[in-house]
Structure formats: structure tokens, C-alpha cells
Design goal:
The structure is a single chain. The protein is an alpha/beta fold. It folds into 2 domains: 211 residues, Rossmann fold (3-Layer(aba) Sandwich); 75 residues, UDP-galactose 4-epimerase, domain 1 (Alpha-Beta Complex). Helix content is 37%, strand content 17%. It is built from 9 helices and 13 strands. It has a 7-stranded parallel β-sheet with strand order 3-2-1-4-5-6-11, sandwiched between helices. The protein starts with a strand and ends with a helix. The structure holds nicotinamide-adenine-dinucleotide (NAD) and uridine-5'-diphosphate (UDP). The site of nicotinamide-adenine-dinucleotide (NAD) has 27 residues, from helix 1, helix 3 and strand 5.
Length: 311
């Protein structure tokens, strides 16, 4: 059994990852500053794990040795990461340095939750890992996009300089139970609005596209990645390659909630990518992984979750 640190473990993805790692019998230390995460996300396992409230930008307390470290700590939704962009950037850069130094000190394998945002508003579609992206370095999304790009740089430099075992995945939009209803992401927004019989807020003309991965599939991809031999470093795209426009998403949400809600068109946020779709050939080949839960099924599960917490 392994001793594993999950930074950002009280968040949406982190809490699902911890569920799987606890099931496997590992010893889990969850580090989180609770900026966007919540103890509620891990309350069902707090008697089985150790929780450390700590901001990864600050020097780490003594935590002992680790076999594996997952770095998921970073606000992921535009609303949250833009609220304090300097802190977001520090989280990616200073946080990554603290994480990597801990991995160096303890000899742990270290995993970075990178993002499809490293491709920016992509001029190559769909996106392979070899694409270097089209990112605005000074826009309102840059604190996140450039921060995550910088974190990837740090991971690869630490691997080259200190022979660290790194695992970098680029996550495409992921959804499911425990998404924060108030963080403004499109799937949770549409579901909550529809359940409340409010108009669905479509930004721009709704023709921009995204590829939505169900959380269980993504976490399975994380575990496959961590289990690869040392030479597999990534970056590897993890996501569901089926692509939908936001208008198509409104239709599906309305269909599965059964509420005939109207649409309200609002301004498109600055630098909002027009399209996003991963090529996942590398994940299939190197991780023997591909998503299994398609959007209709995943939406039904997510709607069931939001319906239950509404009651
Ligand atoms: P989330 O906001 O639910 O989780 C992030 C967690 O990190 C929260 O618990 C938050 O409190 C914590 N955190 C933030 N800054 C921190 C800091 N400085 N120190 C300690 N803890 C900190 O978001 P999520 O959707 O679970 O995303 C997890 C990771 O996956 C993030 O790194 C995000 O960039 C990445 N990611 C997510 C998606 C997605 O669609 N959900 C897509 C691409 C990448
Ligand atoms: N979006 C929308 N209505 C909403 C929230 C988001 O139309 O209420 C759009 C947003 O402009 C973007 C897409 O949905 O084009 C995905 O947004 P999200 O914030 O979920 O993820 P990201 O832009 O980071 O991929």
C-alpha cells in the first residue's frame, strides 16, 4: 500500500480521486486551502484520510515521505481563477515548485493536472499533444493558461535536472457529481438553471464547442497514468473526444431534466475558446484508456446529483 499526497483533494476532481485511492487501501494525505473545495466533498472519508489545510504557494509543513503525489490544487473555473489572478498564477508556479521539491526530497512520483487551456483558442482542431497552442499571454484567462503552461515547464525541467518521475495529463472539460453549483461552469450552470426553471444562460451565439468527459472516466485515466513506467511522462490528453456546441448541450440538458426552459443569450467572455476537442490516441495507446460514459448518460447522473442536493 502506498502513502499518497493529493493536493487539491477537497475539490471536485480531487475528492473523486481520493474515493478511488481509499477504496484501493492506500494511506491518503489531502492538502487543500479550501478556496474552491469543501470539506463536504470529503466528509464521507475524513475518518479514513488525513486532511491538512494548507495553501500550496506557502512552504510545506513536515509531512513525511510519499510514494506518489497528485497536484490538483488550482481553482479551475473562470469565475474563481479570475477572482484573484495573481494568486492563481502563484498557485501554478510557486505551488508546482513546492510540490516538485517535495517529490525531489521524498523520491515520489509526481502527477500534474494540466489542462486543455494550454492550447488556448486553438488554431489546430482537434488538438494533439504536439500542438503548442494559441494563448493570449495578457488576457483575463492568462493567469490560468500561462500558469498551467509554466507548471508544465517546471515539471519537465525538474524531470530533466533531477531525474524526477513525472506524469502530466491535460484535462479537457470534465463534469459530474460534486461540481460546485456556483462556479459558473457550463454543465452545472445549465443543469441548475433548468432544475430551477430558469432560462439557460448561453454565452455568445452558443456555437462554440467543448468536449465533455464524465468524472469517473477521467479519474480512471489518472490512475492508469500514474501506473505507467517511468519513461511515460506525458503530456497526455485526457478527455472525451465527442464534441458538442453549447446549443446542443442546452437541448440535452432540457431533454434530461424534462423542464422546457428557455434560453437567454449573454455576451461571450473575453478569449473564450471557439472549439475544443482532444485527440486521445496517446491515451489509448500508452494508457489503454478511453472514456466509456457518453454525454447523455453522464448528464443523467449529474442531474440526479443536483436534484438530490436541491431537495
Ligand atoms: P476545484 O476548484 O473543484 O478543485 C481545486 C481544489 O484545489 C479545491 O479544493 C481548492 O480549494 C484547491 N486549491 C486551489 N488553490 C489552492 C492552493 N493554492 N493551495 C491549496 N489548495 C488549493 O477544481 P477541479 O475541477 O477539481 O480541478 C482540479 C484540477 O484539475 C485543477 O488543477 C484544474 O486546473 C484541473 N482541471 C480541471 C478541469 C475540469 O474540467 N474540471 C479541466 C482541466 C483541468
Ligand atoms: N458557457 C455558457 N453559459 C454558461 C457558462 C459557460 O454558454 O452559463 C460557455 C462558455 O462561454 C464556454 C463554454 O460554455 O464557451 C464552457 O465554459 P466553461 O466555463 O464550463 O469551461 P471552459 O470555458 O473553461 O472550457
Amino acid at each position: 500500500m502506498k502513502r499518497i499526497l493529493v493536493a487539491g483533494g477537497a475539490g471536485f476532481l480531487g475528492s473523486h480521486l481520493i474515493d478511488r485511492l481509499v477504496e484501493q487501501g492506500h494511506t491518503i494525505i489531502c492538502m487543500d486551502n479550501l478556496q474552491t473545495g469543501a470539506m463536504d466533498n470529503i466528509s464521507h472519508v475524513t475518518n479514513k484520510i488525513q486532511f491538512v489545510q494548507h495553501d500550496i504557494t506557502e512552504p510545506f509543513p513536515e509531512l513525511g515521505d510519499f510514494d506518489e503525489i497528485y497536484n490538483l490544487a488550482c481553482a479551475a473555473s473562470p469565475v474563481h481563477y479570475q477572482a484573484d489572478p495573481v494568486h492563481t498564477f502563484k498557485t501554478s508556479i510557486l505551488g508546482a515548485i513546492n510540490i516538485l521539491e517535495l517529490a525531489r526530497k521524498t523520491g515520489a512520483k509526481v502527477f500534474q493536472a494540466s489542462t486543455s487551456e494550454v492550447y488556448g483558442d486553438p488554431l489546430v482542431h482537434p488538438q494533439p499533444e504536439q500542438y503548442w497552442g494559441n494563448v493570449n499571454p495578457i488576457g483575463i484567462r492568462s493567469c490560468y493558461d500561462e500558469g498551467k503552461r509554466g507548471a508544465e515547464t517546471l515539471f519537465f525541467d525538474y524531470a530533466r535536472m533531477y531525474n524526477l518521475e513525472i506524469k502530466v495529463v491535460r484535462i479537457f472539460n470534465t463534469y459530474g457529481p460534486r461540481m460546485d453549483a456556483k462556479d459558473g461552469r457550463v454543465v452545472s450552470n445549465f443543469i441548475v438553471q433548468s432544475l430551477q426553471n430558469k432560462a439557460l444562460t448561453v454565452y455568445g451565439d452558443g456555437k462554440q464547442s467543448r468536449s465533455f468527459c464524465y468524472v469517473d472516466d477521467l479519474i480512471e485515466g489518472f490512475l492508469h497514468m500514474m501506473a505507467t513506467p517511468k519513461e511515460i511522462t506525458g503530456p497526455i490528453n485526457l478527455g472525451n473526444p465527442n464534441e458538442f456546441t453549447m446549443l446542443e448541450l442546452t437541448e440535452k440538458v432540457i431533454k434530461w431534466t424534462g423542464n422546457e426552459t428557455s434560453l437567454k443569450f449573454e455576451d461571450l467572455p473575453q478569449d473564450d475558446p471557439k472549439q475544443r476537442k482532444p485527440i486521445i490516441d496517446e491515451a489509448k495507446r500508452l494508457l489503454d484508456w478511453e472514456p466509456k460514459v457518453m454525454l447523455d448518460e453522464g448528464l443523467q447522473k449529474t442531474i440526479a446529483y443536483f436534484s438530490a442536493i436541491k431537495e
